[in-house]
């Protein structure tokens, strides 16, 4: 996002806009090289959902986004998009799943889950599944209690993450990913997700 786009988002979504202090935040993104990387949607871990295996969150997320409610969604080559997403393999399959989604939209296709509330709920479903399947994710979530989880999107995504305010050095944005993970963390701590042997 460019600066003008960020300011427009801040104005349009002011009730959802958040500001996080550097001291009270756990910053993460897919470029972290320490334990915080497990918080990234691209962290490679096996996630079981409806007896199917996905890896990572973005793989499952894009697959769920193409739940066409019975409609067969095909790309320009006539291939079922959901099947293409599921068949992504390898360490970078989250990026590949995202690319397939973007290509479909560029070709004039519409992702069924365009509604923001549905998108957010879909992402929450993914993080709940990840918390149930990934011990390291649970450990980092538990260790982060009392801190805000903030996806530091230095590339400028102030919607799903946050950007640094160069004047205050705080982090600002809607922080969808971080806020959903904090809700999942609360569910984990309360026992709502079940009991685990870790």
- Distance from N terminus to C terminus (CA atoms, Å) equals 40 Å
Radius of gyration: 17 Å
Helix and strand succession?
A: HEEEEHHHHHEEEH
Name the beta content range: 5-15%
Structural class: alpha+beta
Strand order of the largest sheet: 1-7-6
What does this structure look like?
This protein is an alpha+beta fold and 198 residues long. 41% of the residues lie in helices and 11% in strands. The chain contains seven helices and seven strands. It has helices spanning 3-12, 57-65, 81-86, 93-106, 116-133, 135-143, 176-190; strands spanning 18-20, 25-28, 47-49, 52-54, 148-151, 163-164, 171-173. The strands form three sheets. The chain has a three-stranded antiparallel sheet, with no helix packed on it. A two-stranded parallel ribbon has the order 2-5. The chain has a two-stranded antiparallel ribbon with strand order 3-4. A hairpin with a 6-residue loop joins β6 (163-164) and β7. α2 packs parallel to α4, α2 runs antiparallel to α5 (116-133) and α5 (116-133) crosses α7. It is globular, with a radius of gyration of 17 Å.
Name its key features:
alpha+beta; three-stranded antiparallel β-sheet; single chain; 41% helix; 7 strands; two-stranded parallel ribbon; globular; 7 helices; 198 residues
């Amino acid at each position: 996002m460019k600066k003008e786009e960020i300011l427009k988002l801040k104005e349009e979504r002011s009730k959802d806009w958040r500001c996080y202090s550097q001291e009270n935040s756990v910053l993460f993104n897919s470029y972290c090289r320490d334990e915080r990387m497990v918080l990234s949607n691209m962290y490679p871990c096996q996630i079981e959902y409806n007896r199917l295996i996905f890896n990572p969150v973005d793989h499952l997320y894009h697959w769920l986004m193409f739940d066409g409610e019975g409609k067969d969604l095909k790309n320009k080559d006539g291939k079922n998009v959901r099947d293409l997403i599921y068949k992504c393999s390898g360490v970078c399959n989250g990026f590949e799943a995202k690319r397939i989604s973007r290509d479909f939209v560029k070709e004039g296709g519409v992702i069924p889950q365009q509604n923001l509330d549905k998108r957010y709920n879909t992402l929450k479903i993914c993080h709940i599944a990840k918390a149930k399947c990934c011990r390291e994710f649970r450990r980092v979530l538990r260790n982060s209690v009392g801190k805000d989880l903030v996806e530091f999107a230095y590339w400028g995504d102030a919607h799903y993450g946050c950007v640094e305010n160069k004047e205050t050095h705080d982090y600002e944005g809607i922080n969808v990913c971080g806020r959903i993970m904090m809700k999942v963390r609360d569910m984990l701590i309360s026992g709502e997700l079940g009991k685990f042997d870790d």
